[in-house]
UniProtKB/TrEMBL annotation:
This is Adenine DNA glycosylase. NCBIfam families: mutY (TIGR01084). It comes from Entotheonella factor. One of its GO terms (molecular function) is oxidized purine DNA binding. Adenine glycosylase active on G-A mispairs. MutY also corrects error-prone DNA synthesis past GO lesions which are due to the oxidatively damaged form of guanine: 7,8-dihydro-8-oxoguanine (8-oxo-dGTP). Its cofactor is [4Fe-4S] cluster. Residues 226-351 form the Nudix hydrolase domain. It catalyses: Hydrolyzes free adenine bases from 7,8-dihydro-8-oxoguanine:adenine mismatched double-stranded DNA, leaving an apurinic site. PROSITE patterns: NUDIX. It is an enzyme of class 3 (hydrolase). It comes from the Bacteria.
Length: 359
């Protein structure tokens, strides 16, 4: 075993953080935690993980669940395709693999939602297969450690690093090896001001030796993301508001939201709302004042949502752009999985209507 690998493993044994999925490791927990941890901090994931395994303690219980309940438990964690794929994958695991995840990374990649990263993580951490995991933390650590100057937005950098790590993971316990690097990236080799003085890789680190820790890894700038104004209508009829379930093939598919959509150029926001309500629900409404304005960012764009209070005037609702429409009271709304922007809107609606004595 290389000296740096031994130092890294010793460091991990001493300093790894407590995480509930590390307590009594089992493939289902490893899988679930790795999916939840994508794009998300450990501290954010822990309560979601605990709630999830309490409700769905096994792959079988998850497979048998209703998708709406899965999405509700995922609410607020973002990147909802992860939850939909996890649910789909649980069904495949139960129906095609007898409830047991395959151990091999290539076999795992046949299951929905298992990309190269999740397959490598589950195969190595849960089953001890020597497959290096390369996420953002690992890229950062090794671009510094080996002085790699390629742009880490280029996909081949990942593949090359994975190949370079293979001989090292084959000489080490794969689960601890992968987790140790990820942990080192999260705790020590931080994006800004890495704690090199307490790093087990410091004796051999190229970036430290050459005073280049601030320059590595090289990451090209992202193009600025577009920003869209969006109008939504909280339509009231007989003490209830109208929500629609987004189509499965859409972004945020399966989640519920208030009708509305993107403003077109030169279009007044109230006209946007009238157009969207008409084309999405077939209803005619009276548009009153806005309840609130909410900013929200996605990976590739940002939105500013203006939520208007509306009163139903005429028409029968038809799900013209959603899978389903429902009239619900504000209390009933709690039972539905909503995207973050809709949660913020519903909080503003509740506060306003309470102040008016309507809720
Ligand atoms: S010595 Fe510093 S730059 Fe090098 S791997 Fe460790 S923390 Fe990162």
């Amino acid at each position: 075993m290389a000296e740096w690998t031994q130092r890294l493993l010793n460091w991990f044994a001493q300093y790894q953080r407590w995480m509930p999925w590390r307590e009594a490791p089992q493939p289902y927990w490893t899988w679930l935690s790795e999916v939840m941890l994508q794009q998300t901090q450990v501290e954010t994931v822990i309560p979601y993980f605990k709630r999830f395994i309490e409700r769905f303690p096994t792959v079988q219980t998850l497979a048998a669940a209703d998708q709406q309940e899965v999405l509700k438990l995922w609410e607020g964690l973002g990147y909802y395709s992860r939850a939909r794929n996890l649910h789909k994958a649980a069904k495949v695991v139960v129906e095609q693999y007898g409830g047991e995840l395959p151990q091999d990374a290539d076999a795992l990649q046949q299951i929905p939602g298992f990309g190269p990263y999740t397959s490598a993580a589950v195969s190595s951490i849960a089953f001890g297969r020597p497959v290096p995991v390369v996420d953002g933390n690992v890229l950062r650590v090794f671009c510094r450690f080996w002085g790699i100057e390629d742009d880490i937005r280029q996909p081949q950098v990942k593949t090359e690093l994975q190949a370079r790590l293979e001989p090292f993971i084959k000489d080490a316990p794969p689960s601890a090896f992968n987790q140790a690097i990820m942990e080192l990236g999260a705790l020590v080799c931080r994006p800004k001001s890495p704690h090199c003085a307490s790093c087990p890789l410091a004796p051999d680190c190229v970036a430290l030796r050459e005073h280049r820790t601030a320059d590595l890894p090289v990451k090209s700038k992202r193009k600025p993301v577009p920003h869209y104004p969006v109008a939504v209508g909280v339509i009231w009829k007989a003490g209830k508001v109208l929500i629609g379930r987004r189509r499965q093939d859409q972004m945020l598919g399966g989640l519920w939201e208030f009708p509305g959509g993107k403003q077109m150029a030169e279009e007044p926001l109230t006209e946007t709302l009238r157009r969207k309500i008409d084309t999405e629900t077939g209803l005619q409404v009276r548009i009153d004042s806005p309840y609130c304005q909410v900013d929200h960012g996605f990976t590739h764009f940002k939105i500013t949502v203006t939520a208007f209070r509306c009163e139903w005037q005429s028409g029968t609702e038809q799900p013209l752009a959603t899978d389903e429409l429902r009239w619900v009271t504000l209390d009933e709304l709690d039972a539905y999985p909503l995207p973050k922007a809709a949660i913020k809107v519903s909080e503003a609606v509740r506060n306003y209507e309470r102040m008016q004595g309507n809720a």
